[in-house]
Write a structure and sequence with these properties.
The complex is a heterodimer of chains A (378) and B (479). Chain A is an alpha+beta fold. Chain A has helices at residues 7-16, 66-74, 88-91, 99-104, 112-115, 118-121, 150-154, 188-199, 226-239, 248-259, 281-290, 318-328, 339-344, 353-366, and strands spanning 21-24, 38-41, 48-52, 57-61, 78-79, 122-129, 134-138, 162-170, 172-173, 177-184, 205-211, 217-224, 244-247, 270-275, 296-300, 305-310, 331-336.
Chain lengths: 378, 479
């Protein structure tokens, strides 16, 4: 394993590589087609470079553990508002998730539906491309239209365009209070309808999820100043008859569970992450069941993000899930599956030829030798 | 302003190109008479003008595709154009180009309140998007000052923002999908009505690429439910630096106003003379707006006022009702018009870390004295997007050049303190040659590599964004 201690060393390592590299942050997000290659760890690139709470800005090296980042921010009453998921429970991995890993996978939690994704909070990147060149893009200010926005391109590129070395973020204050309205026993259609009502209200909902199944739970979160949360909680109760309010730490626990897809963590099976129009989610789940794909489902993002737990037999539900996505619009990623399954089924949504050509073209430009996580994205 | 010499070989093909365009577009959609193409000779950066060879106004994605296919085959550069409100010369034509305007494409294709999006043709103006969903109490958040006139296509090209971006983000944070026509006429759909498209974030790189990667003909935009209400407070200070510190303290306190606007004395005086908004005469004014229910607004304003009081404000006016709120905004919203009435000015668009605000204001003051030109400051302080207005007299020989030199100094200062050359207007031709102050050649290479992939012949809006010397080899190779 190679573990450079500085960006310059990272650039040297990549420039000098004579074979494929498997890029690893904390090693907790083992997603994608398994990569054969020498392991390149970013964990030596660690530490906060600059933190200005008054400007809501944090600059941090890519290999810094997420826990460390969150602790530094919490010290000033701030946080990463995109609420990055911890994949360890779901994937059964160990180690420490890194901030670079979260960006490479564009990992966004339940607040996505209101606040935006990881990529929306990423202001600047420094990375080493496949030729060993150090490239900088963006900066550390919230508004920047100086040239192309490669920052977004790097988020969610799974290390296939460059190895991230340093990242800058917009951070936000930890709100004074949070509350969650919980409804029980709704079917998916009624659940998503309730989420849609909440998200279509003026009450600034920052989380909207429905956990399907026997003990179905529909939950809507609000955050902010204490008096404001109390006010909005009461108004939402009027809009969502039968929902009960849960406050503070109990509320936070409900969202950590959704964020980390905790209900699927201890269970066997393949796990799909599907993105569709929120109102299409219940119909999709119904069609999958009618088509013979037994599954459990968690609907986040007002219903737009569907987590599916399916038996890991045959193609792990690939044909059925991708068939639905093709009909509805959206995309599906096989987030958990055996190496054998991930070697046979495309893990990421196959692109139409014109888009695939653009993606291929970009990878060829940024990684001309094809050595950065080759094959991982399919 | 240096632009590449028009390609005489292309000009020689004009008749054939026009004929081919007329084959695929309805009558009236191809404008080739030199008297009429002059209407497209500039955008809102009127200092630079050049009538295009042809202008076309297609009405559909299919027509845009047909036009681009022809231009691709003929090797004709294409300059895409929305409403022509670019302040950076983003749609400045060259004499040998086809201007492709999407202004006839204004249809709303779908509104979906349950899933909270709108799909439309991108010639539609920004404000009319909110108008289209107002009946359901929804709105489209990004609000550039030109929102009455500017088109969504241009907003996407420039990743536009506005006063309310501190809370709601800029265009890229509210864009879910596009229909993109590549230079060879290929039509691709990127993203859609679902959040976070799979694969590489091509949507993210299209947004803000200044019309150089493809022509966006349709877009899916996130719409939001309107808050119950909003109200501003006006706070005056006897020093700009104090106002800057107050902005930092408000942001740090955990309150997220929807807007924090800043004006300095020259700007206050001009706005007051123009709009009679009742502004106090002081060195700096902040307008801070918050949203929510009446009780929430009152609570937040109380907190903001308490923070402001620790900075000894010389004036403090809380809007009691809608009329007072409108009066507080009136001066700010007429700032550009007011300044234009008293003087010629050049409007800059640099961004700085909010923490550098006091230092940057001080140094702008010093530079202003050094150059002997007045500078008025009005800007979105919450997100550090500054718009220094340099006052000069266009009729005095040498003043424009002096003004440009001072502008460049100020933008370099923004970069020096950790900011950037442009926060919302874009690079266009205006700041093209300053790019090497923010980025190293290797950084620009990486950006140009993206263009190589989307538009290998560099035919789309080719002489923009990158310094001419940096892009020269690519543009030459294309010819």
């Amino acid at each position: 394993m190679m573990k450079p201690q500085s960006e310059a060393e990272l650039a040297e390592v990549v420039a000098g590589a004579n074979g494929p590299l498997r890029i690893v942050g904390g090693g907790t997000r083992d997603v994608g087609r398994p990569v054969e290659g020498e392991e390149l760890s970013t964990s030596g690139l660690s530490g906060v470079t600059l933190y200005e709470p008054g400007a809501l800005t944090l600059v941090v090296r890519a290999g810094t553990p997420l826990g460390e980042v969150e602790a530094v921010l919490a010290g000033e009453g701030q946080r990463l508002a995109f609420e990055p998921m911890d994949h360890r429970g779901l994937l059964g991995t160990s180690g420490e998730p890194t901030i670079g890993g979260a960006v490479a996978a564009n990992v966004s939690g339940p607040r996505r539906v209101q606040a935006g994704a990881c990529r929306d909070f990423l202001l600047g990147v420094r990375f080493v491309d496949g030729a060993g060149r150090v490239v900088a893009n963006g900066g550390r200010v919230m508004k920047n239209v100086t040239g192309y926005d490669l920052v977004k391109l790097m988020a969610g590129s799974w290390g296939s365009l460059g190895v991230l070395s340093e990242l800058s973020f917009k951070v936000l204050a930890i709100p004074q209070a949070e509350a969650t309205l919980v409804g029980r026993g709704l079917d998916p259609e009624a659940g998503v309808k309730a989420l849609s009502v909440a998200l279509g209200s003026p009450f600034d909902v920052s989380g909207a999820a429905h956990l399907c199944g026997g003990a179905a739970r529909t939950q809507v979160r609000i955050e902010g100043l204490e008096a404001s949360v109390a006010y909005r909680r009461d108004r939402l109760k009027e809009l969502l008859p039968g929902f009960e309010a849960v406050e503070g730490a109990d509320s936070a626990a409900l969202w950590a569970e959704v964020r980390d897809v905790a209900p699927f963590a201890g269970q066997a099976g393949a796990v799909w992450k599907v993105s569709v129009r929120p109102s299409d989610a219940p119909g999709m789940c119904k069609a999958l069941a009618e088509g013979g794909l037994a599954h459990q489902a968690i609907l986040d993002w007002g219903g737009g993000l569907v987590w599916l737990l399916v038996p890991e037999t045959g193609d792990g539900g690939a044909a059925a899930v991708r068939g639905q996505v093709a009909a509805l619009g959206g995309h599906a990623t096989l987030v958990r599956g055996s190496a054998a399954l991930r070697n046979t089924v495309p893990v990421f949504q196959p692109e139409v030829p014109a888009l695939a050509a653009l993606s291929r073209g970009l990878r060829a430009k940024f990684d001309p030798r094809g050595i950065l996580n080759p094959g991982l994205t399919g | 302003m240096q632009m590449p010499e028009p390609n005489t070989a292309i000009l020689a093909r004009k008749d054939r190109v026009v004929a081919r365009l007329r084959d695929v577009l309805p009558g009236g959609a191809v404008i080739s008479d030199p008297a009429e193409t002059r209407a497209y000779e500039c955008d809102a950066l009127t200092a630079y003008r050049c009538a295009p060879m042809v202008a076309v106004l297609p009405g559909s994605t299919a027509e845009v595709s047909a036009v681009l296919k022809i231009c691709h085959e003929e090797g004709v550069p294409v300059v895409p154009r929305g409403a022509g409100t670019s302040l950076a010369g983003g749609s400045l034509p060259t004499a040998d180009c086809v201007v492709l305007g999407v202004s006839r494409m204004t249809q709303v294709l779908e509104t979906n309140y349950a899933d909270r999006y709108i799909r439309l043709q991108t010639g539609r103006t920004n404000l009319s998007v909110s108008g289209a969903v107002a009946e359901a109490d929804f709105f489209y958040a990004p609000d550039p000052s030109s929102q009455l006139a500017c088109a969504i296509s241009g907003n996407i090209a420039m990743n536009s923002g506005g006063a309310h971006c501190l809370k709601y983000g800029v265009t890229t944070n509210n864009l879910m999908g596009v229909t993109l026509v590549l230079m060879d006429g290929t039509v691709v759909e990127i993203g859609g009505a679902h959040l976070d498209a799979g694969g590489l974030d091509l949507l993210g790189v299209i947004c803000g690429s200044e019309g150089q990667l493809g022509v966006v003909t349709e877009a899916t935009l996130r719409i939001l439910r309107k808050p119950e209400g909003a109200r501003p407070v006006l706070i005056g200070f006897d020093a700009s630096e104090t106002a800057g510190h107050c902005v930092s303290d408000i942001i740090r306190s955990g309150i997220l106003p929807v807007a924090i606007e800043f004006m300095d004395r020259p700007c206050i005086e001009a706005c007051e003379a123009f709009a009679h908004a009742g502004y106090p005469m002081c060195e700096a004014l902040l307008i801070v707006e918050v949203e929510g229910s009446e009780a929430e607004i009152a609570d937040q304003l109380d907190r903001i006022i308490a923070i402001a009081r620790t900075h000894d404000p010389v004036a403090l006016r809380e809007a009691g009702d809608a009329d007072e709120a409108a009066r507080i905004w009136l001066g700010r919203k007429s700032a550009f018009g007011a300044m234009g009435q008293i003087n010629d000015y050049m409007c800059l668009d640099g961004t700085i870390p909010v923490s550098s605000l006091p230092e940057v204001l001080r140094r702008i003051g010093e530079l202003s004295e050094e150059y002997g030109l007045g500078v008025a400051n009005v800007f979105h302080a919450g997100d550090g997007n500054m718009h220094p207005l340099i006052l000069y007299n266009a009729n005095t020989p040498g003043q424009l050049e002096l003004c440009e030199a001072l502008g460049a100094e100020i933008l370099k200062l923004c970069v020096e303190v950790g900011g950037c050359l442009t926060g919302e207007h874009g690079v266009g031709v205006e700041k093209r040659d300053l790019m090497l102050h923010q980025y190293r050649p290797v950084d620009l290479e990486a950006q140009m590599a993206v263009k190589d992939v989307f538009d290998p012949e560099w035919l789309l809006n080719p002489a923009k964004v990158f310094p001419l010397t940096s892009s020269e080899a690519r543009r030459m190779a294309a010819e």
